[in-house]
Design brief:
eight-stranded mixed sheet, Immunoglobulin-like, 2 helices, mainly beta, about 5% helix, 36 strands
């Protein structure tokens, strides 16, 4: 009897061990941590689509038990766990982008043996095809203005880091649309992008594009690139005589047009999400001050000062301090602002660079993202009898006795090596990497102005035509992990886009070609289209 009891005990122990072993295997291998790491493949975490585009998701699911032929059910939902709508109960699913916005798809795989469900969230960003990319303004044979777009998307790529394959975000160029806007106008001059208040969320259209041309400026919807405003129709009391704008500075609280006769016409906007909520006055702004140059304005939020150079070759500022009330829902700009007031250098602050400047300014660029803690900074290059002087300066304004004064907070300066300025053509500026790119003798020269050194190029791109334009998309990356993108426009109607890769150990620059296309015609201007006001100084690629 004792022997029988012993055998029964052993048998029960073995069966218990087998049960425990099975449970242990399942728990150890087919748990949530394993799913997050290896459970689903062939599907990325985020996608960018244009309206009307489709994408077929074909996930490969791997359970650690019955991994080859799992007994599983599948489902696709729109929305997150808290609130979701069933889309499909099949493993594979085709998603069609129908409206602009950010969407979450939820893929669910249920193990039918245990009724345990594993999920994977997929973000889909549906954007207007013309929201981001590069704008190319060209002149037709009949002097018509033609606007084209080079299209861009965010995409995951696989790169090898320390011998391991890792996934990284990048920007890819997926084609182009030529001559988008019919009957745009005549006599193209330049492009300027404007933004609504960058902190406003949920707006489908966050920017507009002004095309400056001989037939008059026209403003285009940032998504559709259709006309939404004409400057000549936005005057309160009639169009000025000889109205012929050649340049513009645009912000969410004001517009400044520099006329060919050196007068400025200003529109003071009243709503930060409506870039046509104000009107221009027939009389010239700034009490009729004559202005030679308006410097480029930072293309986002933060700058409270517009900088210009008057007919006496002296710098001045235009106050741009419009803001909305705290927690404002209508985004009405505070009417007590001082937008449009003139700010001049203090009488007791003498600096030859800013007053009665001798020589010719050949280049200006914004150099930072101004905010409450940082003054707006600019970078300028002056041709002074064949010597090319650069100057980096931070500006601030303050109000004393009902008058605004402009002061220089800090500055740096130096001389650009003459060797890279022979037969000078044009320049571009990398605000976050502190580089200057010079085109001379149809060659590209990178110059580190802080270190006063020319950066060697690993290989010189060979172009079959004269370079007529440059544009830069730089990233405010603290660790320098993001590479800037550079667009080069040629007289032949070709456009190249490069990734700018710098090797700090070799102190060498490499230009990696990402895009090349001809057929753009006689290119007049090329600009990066940021699409929204918080992108110019962003630390992310897209």
């Amino acid at each position: 009897m004792k022997k029988k009891l012993i055998y029964i005990f052993i048998l029960l122990s073995v069966m218990a061990c087998l049960d425990d072993k099975s449970n242990y295997d399942y728990k150890d291998l087919n748990d949530f941590e394993n799913w997050d790491r290896n459970g689903v493949s062939n599907v990325d975490s985020d996608y960018t689509l244009y309206p009307g585009e489709e994408i077929l998701f074909e996930p490969k699911v791997r359970f650690s038990i019955d991994s080859l032929n799992p007994d599983a059910s599948y489902a696709w939902y729109l929305g997150k766990e808290e609130e979701k709508t069933l889309l499909s109960e099949q493993l594979n699913y085709t998603y069609k982008a129908e409206e602009i916005g950010e969407f979450t798809l939820l893929f669910c795989a249920t193990d039918n043996k245990t009724n345990v469900t594993f999920t994977k969230e997929i973000s889909v960003d549906v954007i207007a095809s013309w929201k981001y990319g590069w704008m190319v303004l060209s002149r037709s044979a009949g002097n018509e203005s033609q606007l084209s777009m080079i299209l861009s998307k965010k995409q995951k790529i696989s790169v090898t880091v320390d011998g391991k394959d890792v996934s990284r975000d990048t920007v890819v160029y997926v084609g182009e649309n030529m001559n988008i806007v019919p009957n745009l106008g005549r006599g193209p001059r330049r492009l300027v992008e404007n933004f609504i208040l960058p902190t406003v969320h949920g707006m489908l259209v966050e920017d507009e594009v002004m095309v400056l041309q001989e037939s008059g400026p026209v403003e285009l919807d940032g998504n559709k690139l259709t006309p939404v405003g004409y400057a000549k129709n936005e005057f309160f009391d009639g169009i000025p005589d000889h109205f012929d704008p050649v340049d513009a500075v645009l912000t969410f609280d004001g517009k400044w047009l520099l006329n060919s006769d050196n007068y400025i016409y200003m529109a003071n906007l009243s709503v930060a999400i409506d870039l046509h909520s104000g009107f221009y006055l027939k009389d010239a702004s700034l009490n009729g001050k004559k202005v030679k140059t308006l410097l480029p304005y930072y293309k986002g939020e933060g700058n409270y000062l517009i900088v210009g150079i008057d007919e006496n070759d002296t710098y001045f500022g235009i106050v741009n301090d419009g803001e909305c009330g705290y927690n404002s829902t209508d985004y009405v700009i505070n009417p007590l602002n001082s937008v449009g007031a003139c700010a001049e250098f203090r009488d007791d602050y003498e600096n030859d660079l800013f007053k009665g400047v001798e020589g010719e300014f050949i280049f200006h660029a914004w150099a930072n993202e101004a905010n409450y803690y940082t003054s707006p900074a600019y970078f300028s290059v002056l041709d002074q009898n064949g010597e090319y002087l650069w100057h980096y300066y931070e500006l601030d304004y303050r109000k004393e006795n009902d008058k605004f004064y402009l002061t220089e907070e800090s500055s740096e300066s130096g001389q650009i090596p003459a060797s890279i300025m022979v037969d000078y053509k044009c320049m571009a500026f990398f605000p976050w990497h502190e580089w200057l790119l010079v085109v001379s003798s149809d060659q590209l020269h990178f110059y580190d102005y802080w270190e006063n050194r020319i950066i060697n190029l690993a290989s010189l791109p060979q172009f079959n035509s004269e370079i007529v334009g440059l544009a830069v998309k730089d990233y405010d990356s603290y660790y320098g992990t993001l590479n800037a993108h550079l667009a080069v426009a040629l007289k032949s109607g070709e456009v190249y886009i490069f990734e700018v890769k710098y090797d700090s150990e070799l102190e060498e620059m490499e230009l990696v070609e990402l895009y090349h296309k001809d057929g753009f015609g006689e290119i007049v201007d090329i600009e990066c289209k940021f699409g929204q006001g918080n992108k110019p100084g962003a630390s992310s690629m897209y």
